[in-house]
UniProtKB/TrEMBL annotation:
Domain annotation RGS: ranges: 303-418
InterPro entries: DEP_dom, G-protein_gamma-like_dom, GGL_sf, RGS, RGS6/7/9/11, RGS6/7/9/11_DHEX_sf, RGS_DHEX, RGS_sf
UniProtKB keywords: Signal transduction inhibitor
SUPFAM superfamilies per the UniProt record, alphabetical: Regulator of G-protein signaling, RGS, Transducin (heterotrimeric G protein), gamma chain, Winged helix' DNA-binding domain
UniProt lineage: Eukaryota, Metazoa, Chordata, Craniata, Vertebrata
Residues in DEP domain copies: 34-109
Signal peptide segment: none
Organism whose genome encodes this protein: Poecilia formosa (Amazon molly)
One GO CC annotation: plasma membrane
GO BP field: G protein-coupled receptor signaling pathway; intracellular signal transduction; negative regulation of signal transduction; regulation of G protein-coupled receptor signaling pathway
Stated name of the protein: Regulator of G protein signaling 9a
Positions of transmembrane segments: none
Length: 481
């Protein structure tokens, strides 16, 4: 049986559709029929006699006989009735399943059926938890205690009213006989288990949003829909295609390149710090380490993106560009990244600085991009935002990717760092050494300190690579004279 849902108001749980629940209501009413329904009897629960209790085996047998189905399917349907709160267990309240054995169940009172569309409020749940807290003398279930504390803080402005209501309900419950008191407690608890389940527990009422298409209704396609479909297929025909062999070859090439760099497929060298409590791996792979590892240097050759993502690789790439007197493209790319990920307050100032440094006529580090991209970028800088330099940044990145990156891989700069790169040997710690590592384990460098160090190095590098203003230098010399 398929249960569909209607979209609720904000803050409510998803409720199953009414017409589907009415069918379940009819089945449950038929199950309670005195003549042809499930036979119930008085059963002992601890020291209390519970009236009209039924066993899981009797419910499963009735469903098998009524619906002409197998025992497994009948048990699944019975579990659905329990999950929706039509039947509740008497022994294990948190286990909302139908067991095909002598486990005891009872039919829920119709007032608590989901077809009533009663949306439980937080105040109702708080009253229930406060009442249980009084009855259990503070010994709630762990998840109930968490909810109780949260509601106490959330509804603190009317907590006196909640405690008063809980106290009155508790006093009224004490006037009932013990069997009725136990039955009502089980009914109420079953209702809240369904509607406020423990955390990380699946609830049958959370079944998703409303289906937008009814499969039983023949859909009429309008002219506008035909037009949209026609445009979609025309665009699909014009779209460039790639052969399966080409795409599979690219995938195989990618996997072959990265398989030795995947932590799930290849071991960490010299050792996994999470297993050995030895921080050599982290020390060797710091963001701005002096001498990187061979695996790290090899990864730079995979793509320009890998090279620029690694700050140590980007520094090495800067050294190469400085020798070729072509560092303005990388400097512009970095400035665009700072604008994209920087603070909103400094956005206008950064955009103006980038325009004066890289894009304005006669700029000290003018970049060579096509006229169309330059026009769009300059026009966008009139009202700057985070992605105003996206087109120019992409253009510069493609220029570096097609030309500068491959020249860097063939340059003495890259070959020299390849020779210097470290190839750490794998650690082979004994159990005693692992225990010693665990005892001597210390906290690493705080990320904020690392960030401060990187900012200082970045500022020094920017000061060293900044263009020299000859007029300013000459004026200073003249003043000294």
């Amino acid at each position: 049986m398929t249960i569909r849902t209607a979209r609720p108001n904000r803050g409510q749980r998803f409720r199953p559709r009414t017409h589907c629940l009415k069918k379940l209501d009819a089945i449950v009413v038929e199950m309670q029929d005195p003549k042809n329904g499930v036979k119930g009897s008085e059963q002992k629960l601890n020291v209390t006699t519970i009236p009209h209790a039924i066993t899981g085996a009797n419910i499963t047998a009735w469903i098998c006989n009524k619906m002409k189905t197998s025992t497994e399917e009948a048990q699944v349907f019975g579990t659905m009735l329990v999950a929706y709160g039509y039947i509740y267990p008497l022994q294990n309240h948190r286990k909302l399943v139908m067991c095909n054995d002598s486990s005891l169940y009872r039919f829920q009172t119709p007032y608590f059926w989901p077809s009533q569309q009663w949306v439980p409020e937080d105040s109702d749940y708080a009253i229930y938890l406060a009442k249980r807290n009084i009855r259990k003398k503070g010994m709630l279930e762990p998840y109930e205690q968490v909810d109780y504390n949260h509601l106490h803080e959330w509804l603190n402005h009317k907590w006196d009213f909640i405690v008063m209501q809980a106290t009155e309900q508790y006093k009224a419950g004490r006037d009932r006989n013990k069997a009725d008191r136990v039955v009502f407690d089980c009914q109420e608890r079953a209702f809240w288990i369904v509607n406020r389940p423990p955390r990380r527990t699946h609830s049958a009422l959370d079944v998703g949003p409303e289906r937008l298409i009814n499969p039983n209704v023949e859909e009429k396609i309008t002219f506008d829909q035909y037009r949209r479909v026609n445009i979609f297929y025309q665009q699909a025909i014009m779209r460039s295609k790639v052969k399966s062999s080409v795409s599979l070859g690219a995938l195989v090439k990618y996997i072959t390149s990265y398989k030795n760099h995947d932590a799930f497929l290849a071991p960490c060298l010299p050792s996994n710090p999470w297993e050995t409590d030895h921080d050599a791996y982290w020390t060797l792979n710091m963001r701005r380490v002096d001498v990187p590892t061979k695996m790290r240097v090899e990864r730079w050759s995979f793509s320009l993106f890998e090279l620029l993502t690694d700050l140590r690789g980007r520094d090495d790439f800067k050294i190469f560009l400085k020798k070729e007197f072509s560092g303005e493209n990388l400097a512009f790319w970095e400035a665009a990244e700072e604008l994209k990920w920087g603070t909103a307050s400094s956005m206008s100032a950064k955009a103006e600085s980038i325009f004066k440094t890289f894009l304005a006529p006669g700029a000290p580090r003018w970049i060579n991009i096509d006229g169309r991209t330059m026009g769009l970028t300059v026009k966008g800088l009139e009202h700057p935002h985070r992605y105003v330099l996206e087109a120019a940044q992409t253009h510069v990145f493609m220029l570096m990717k097609k030309d500068t990156f491959f020249r860097y891989l063939k340059s003495p700069t890259y070959k020299e760092i390849q020779k210097k790169a470290l190839s750490p040997e794998a650690h082979n710690f004994s159990p005693a050494q692992l225990e010693e590592n665990a005892r001597n384990r210390s906290a690493g460098i705080h990320p904020i300190i690392l960030w401060q160090q990187e900012e200082e190095e970045k500022a020094k590098a920017a000061a060293a690579s900044a263009p020299v203003d000859v007029k300013a230098v000459m004026s200073k010399i003249d003043r000294k004279k």
